[in-house]
Design goal:
The strands form 2 sheets. Strands 4, 5, 6, 7, 8, 9, 10, 11 and 12 form a 9-stranded mixed β-sheet that branches. The protein has a 3-stranded mixed β-sheet with strand order 1-2-3. About 35% of the residues are buried. About 35% of the residues lie in helices and about 30% in strands. The longest helix is centred in the C-terminal third of the chain and has 17 residues. The chain has 2 domains: about 80 residues, no CATH class; about 160 residues, Alpha-Beta Complex (Phosphoenolpyruvate Carboxykinase, domain 3). It has 7 helices and 12 strands. It is globular and about 50 Å long. It is an alpha+beta fold and about 240 residues long.
Length: about 240
């Protein structure tokens, strides 16, 4: 076994893994602090990860994928949810762009990076963590940051969540229908299978709905889409 500790969302976890590649994958989050939790990977975890994948594909490899799932289940008890989306910060505010896989959220955030240059800093391009902390929502990075490994081990207060659609022109609107937003979030947040943890996750979503703004954008792949998102949403949110 390979034993190491990682700190994610201010929580230190000791991991007992089979493969050195798992430690390397988490290298930006390694820690020497005292751990609060211990996770030991098992062969059953690896088998289950393959069985649970509908298309036979797992995230990077079986162990890295299984570790992500075990941490996601654990973190619900800490008021932390794993969200599917591309996240970044501008100034001291974080933003999350979410969409179905393949729609183009990473492309849009890349356009924003090209448009804003050093004003934009990547947090996590695939699976950031959203933590309810006192009266705030804090967005954290995680090792699971997408195929291009775009991300930094940083955190920031979440300002808004932006639902992205691909369109023939660039448009935006603020969302106010909480029921509509709730079901949109359900499809983009990891929900544990265990009933009590799943119920806890749903309560966390209720809190999220009350604390931040939500937007929907329809965008082209052109850089003009970044200008629209910045001028109409981000610029107003960071005032």
């Amino acid at each position: 076994m390979v034993t190491f500790k990682i700190e994610i969302a201010d929580i230190v976890i000791e991991v007992n893994a089979f493969n050195e590649t798992t430690k390397k994958y988490c290298s930006d989050f390694l820690s020497n602090k005292d751990s609060k939790y211990t996770i030991t990977m098992t062969h059953e975890d690896l088998i289950n990860e393959v069985n649970e994948s509908s298309n036979g594909k797992v995230y990077v490899n079986e162990e890295i994928s299984a570790l992500y799932r075990k941490i996601a289940d654990l973190f619900v008890e800490e008021n932390i949810l794993v969200v599917h989306g591309s996240s970044f910060k501008v100034g001291d505010k974080a933003f999350l762009v979410t969409a179905r896989s393949g729609v183009g959220k990473s492309t849009h955030v890349n356009n924003l990076k090209e448009y804003l240059k050093d004003k934009l800093e990547y947090i996590n391009d695939d699976k950031p963590l959203l933590k309810v902390k006192d009266n705030d929502l804090i967005l954290y990075s995680s090792p699971w940051n997408g195929k291009e490994r775009r991300g930094n081990n940083i955190s920031s207060k979440l300002s808004s969540i932006i639902f992205l659609n691909r369109g023939k022109e660039n448009t935006y609107r603020k969302l106010d229908n909480k029921e509509d937003i709730y079901f949109r979030l359900l499809s983009q947040i990891y929900l544990p299978k265990e009933k009590t943890k799943r119920e806890k996750a749903l309560k966390i979503i209720d809190i999220i709905l009350k604390r931040i703004n939500f937007y929907e954008i329809n965008v082209t792949k052109d850089i003009s889409s970044a200008s629209m998102t910045y001028e109409r949403i981000i610029k107003n949110e960071i005032k």
